Amino acid sequence: MKADVAVIGAGYTGLSAAYHIKRLLAEREVIVLEAEGAGYGASGRNGGMALNQPSMDYMSMVRPETHRLTYDATAQCIREISELMKTNGCGSFIRPSGSLLVNKAEKGAEKSKEYAGKTSSMGVPIEYWDRERVADEIGTKVYAGGLHDPNAAELEPMKMVQALKRAAENAGVVIYENSPVLRVDEGKPIRLLVRGADGGLRTVTAGAVVLGTDAYSSKLGFFKSRLPVLHTEIAATKVLDKDALSDIGWASRIPFHDDHMYLYHLGTTDDNRIIIGAGNAEYFFNDSLTYKKDLNKRRKALHRELVRIYPELKGVELEHIWTGALTYSFNMAQSVGVTGKNKNIYYGIGYSGHGVTLSFLFGKVIADIHAGEDDKWKRMPFYQNDLPPYTPPEPLRYIAVKSYMGYMRILDMMKGD
Ligand SMILES: Cc1cc2nc3c(=O)[nH]c(=O)nc-3n(C[C@H](O)[C@H](O)[C@H](O)COP(=O)(O)OP(=O)(O)OC[C@H]3O[C@@H](n4cnc5c(N)ncnc54)[C@H](O)[C@@H]3O)c2cc1C
């Protein structure tokens, strides 16, 4: 089989890259090879917060004009995702609710206030809310303050996958599911060994490859020593009564996450459940993609946090719990670009739990680099960004990653609850 561009992975990065390449270069033959089903990875199982720009800590380090450009680019992406979901039958699954980054302690609230002062001078409409204002919107007084971003959104993750998949197919992309790529041999063209859905082995030759494989990339030999694979968990309540959210004071349904490294994030679903995720991350030896912890313990921990925030929900059980894998970047740097001996392997990686909007954006950037129209992205912080420094092979990597994770816990303790 031959293609001009073979995209590996049908998550947001891969589908967005395939869609945007085909839109820009209609004559190119673009295929997507997905090991399982579209959305099997983090894209089909995340918390659904479509956030603007990388994290606040990261953005605090970039220049004001870069900050503004980055915010505008992601806000534009959220509008485009919304439009794509609407035109592909999934419009009711994205809510232009904005989002809140809430501060667990006064120290964090002070930092947020200062950050909002800076963003407003740049024309970025992120606003500081104090404890009372936060409580008015989300019904809990446990937070000292927060940053409200009016341009963020909440969406049903798998519906975004479906919309992107439809859009890509309508544009002429051919998607092969249950077709894992087993090997990538660099060259001009690149040769891929693929197990087809019928079990047979095939070779695909392609002029260019897009790695839309995030946490799975190291298994194909890419970015192995750069980005550890972390696993996080999310749980969902049963379907709540129609008035349950107003009863707890969360009629706004603004999704929120706190300001710790091991942050909790909460949102709501279209069928009126609350979802709560994280507060934890796990690393398993050799970047294993298999989750190995006791999920029932995690369910209890997530329930404890839910009840801490909303004591009224004490009797509401968490009906479902699931996990997902992501790449975590030690220097908080996401990166999109092109690599390989022949500069024909495109990638978007290192989202660090902040990838719904950015992966869509990185698909656009990949398309523009491929078409030679990437000048406008060159000033962005993520363009060909350096990934974190080398981490040693196992077993030293395990020790290094676990030590870093322990250090993050200490930082969280210092931030206070
Ligand atoms: C639990 C969880 C909650 C999250 N919550 C949020 C959130 O609320 N907001 C936010 O902004 N971000 C969130 N994220 C991060 C966000 O979901 C990811 O950054 C984003 O989905 C990454 O998309 P992707 O397409 O790059 O990777 P993925 O969605 O992981 O897609 C990779 C795809 O590649 C396929 N694949 C892998 N290997 C091969 C192979 N050899 N051959 C063929 N196909 C292959 C996989 O099957 C998979 O479908 C969360 C992540 C997790 C895990």
Provide a descriptive summary of the structure in words.
With 417 residues, the protein is an alpha+beta fold. It has a domain at 1-94 and 153-224 and 331-386: FAD/NAD(P)-binding domain (3-Layer(bba) Sandwich), CATH 3.50.50. It is 33% helix and 24% strand. It contains ten helices and 20 strands. It has helices at 12-24, 56-59, 64-87, 106-122, 131-138, 157-171, 244-247, 295-309, 356-371, 396-415, and strands at 2-8, 30-33, 49-50, 94-95, 99-103, 127-130, 145-149, 153-155, 174-176, 181-185, 190-195, 201-211, 229-237, 256-258, 264-268, 274-278, 282-283, 318-327, 335-339, 345-349. The strands form three sheets. Strands 5, 6, 7, 13, 14, 15, 16, 17 and 18 form a nine-stranded mixed β-sheet that branches. Strand 14 (256-258) and strand 15 (264-268) form a beta hairpin. Helix 1 packs parallel to helix 6 (157-171). The protein is globular. The N and C termini lie far apart (56 Å). The mean pLDDT is 95.
Topology:
Blueprint: E1 2-8, H1 12-24, E2 30-33, E3 49-50, H2 56-59, H3 64-87, E4 94-95, E5 99-103, H4 106-122, E6 127-130, H5 131-138, E7 145-149, E8 153-155, H6 157-171, E9 174-176, E10 181-185, E11 190-195, E12 201-211, E13 229-237, H7 244-247, E14 256-258, E15 264-268, E16 274-278, E17 282-283, H8 295-309, E18 318-327, E19 335-339, E20 345-349, H9 356-371, H10 396-415
Helix pairs in contact: 1-6, 1-9, 3-6, 3-9
Bound molecules: flavin-adenine dinucleotide.
